[in-house]
Amino acid sequence: MYHCKKLADSQGRYIAQLSRPIFWYPLLVIILVAFLHYKQAPAESRLLAPLTHPATPRIAICLVGGARRLELTGPTILEHILNVYPEADLFVHSNLDENTFKLSLLRSAPRVTEVRIRRPVVLPETKQDMRLLSASSSPNGIQGLLQYFELVEGCLDMIGTYESRGNFTYDWILRTRLDGYWKGPLDSKAFKPGSYVVPKGSRYGGLNDRLGIGDKFISAVALSRISLLPIIYSAGFRDLNSESAFHAQLKVFNIQAEELRFPFCILSDRQYKYPPSGDIAPVASIASPGPLSGAKCRPCIPQCKGECIEKLGPEKWLGWTEWHNGSLELCDGSQPWQEDWEEFFDKVAGEVAADVRHRVKDMKTEECLQEMEGLKKKAERWNGPDPIEICNLGLTSK
C-alpha cells in the first residue's frame, strides 16, 4: 500500500516519495466513484463527439519517462502527435538526470500546460510488491517498475489539479512515452468511447502499456499504476511484469481494452539475444515500413527482413509485432548501436530530425539556458529545478 507524500526540498519545491499505508484510500475512492458513475450512466451520454465535431473535445496529452533519446524522438512526437492535436494540453512528467535538458525541445509544442521534473528517490519495496511484481522483466528490477508506475500515475495528479483549477473535465487522456519514435500521425480513430485503446503487439503476457487512450473515467483506472497494486494483489495476481500488471488492473475493473496498430516504436539501448525467439524481444530497425506499435527499435542497417523474418517464425515470439508483407526489419539487438548509427538515422529520419540531433549534440550552456527558460516561460505551470541546474547537469556530463 502506498501514498504520495510531498517533501519540501531546499528550494521550497517538493519531490514525490511513496510511503505507507493509508493515502491511497481517498484516491481509490475517487477512482471507484468515477468508474461506477461511468458504468451506470446511460450509454448515449457516454458517446463523446468525434474529433471532427465542431465542438472539439478537450484532450490531455501526458508524456512520461526519461529524455535519454529525446533529440531523436522529440521531433517525431512534435510532428505526429502534438502538432496533429494543437488544441490539446501537454503535460510532461520526467525524472531529473543528465538528459533532462533535452526537454527544451518541447518548447516548440503548440501548448505546454505543466512540466513536472521530479528528483529521483528510491521508492520503498514491500513484501507484497515482491510477490506481486516480477523483477526479471525489468532492467532495474521491481524498483524500475515502481519508478515507471509513479511517473505514469503522476499524469493523473497533474491533470486532475488543472481540471480543478479550470472547473472542467477532459474528454480524453492520451498517455505515451518520451522515448517513442513516431513514423506517422496518431489517427483520430484511436479515440474510441467505452474502451481503453492500446497498441497491438509487444504484449509480453499482458497488454502493451507504451501508449494508452481513453476517456477520463477509464483513464483514472488505467493510469493508477501505483495506487491499484494492493487491489490487484488482493485479487490474487502474482509475479507480474509491467504489461501483465496493466492487464490485471483493467481486468479487475472490467475495462475493455481495444488493441490497434500505431506507427511508433520505442528507442532502446538495451541489448537482447539475436535472433529473437520465445520471450526474447525483437529489436526493429526504425527503417521498418510497418506499424511497429511500440516495439523496441533502434537506428540500424537491418540484418533480417523478408524471407529471413518468415523463417524466424515471429508468431512464436512473446513480444511479437506486425511482420507480414515486409513490414518488419530486424537489427542485431545483441550488440550496442552500430558505430555509424548517426548517419543511418539522419538518412531515415530526414533533414529536420537530423538538424535537431546535431543541434542538441553541439549545444552549449548559453543556448541550453535560453531554450530551457523558453520552455519554463511557455509552461502554465513549472514544477522542477531551475534551468541552470538542468543545463549544468546535462552539459557537464557530455
UniProtKB/TrEMBL annotation:
It holds the Pfam family DUF7796. This is DUF7796 domain-containing protein. It comes from Rhynchospora tenuis. The keyword tRNA processing does not apply. Keywords: Membrane, Transmembrane, Transmembrane helix. It comes from the Eukaryota. The chain crosses the membrane at residues 21-38. InterPro entries: DUF7796. Residues 56-396 form the DUF7796 domain.
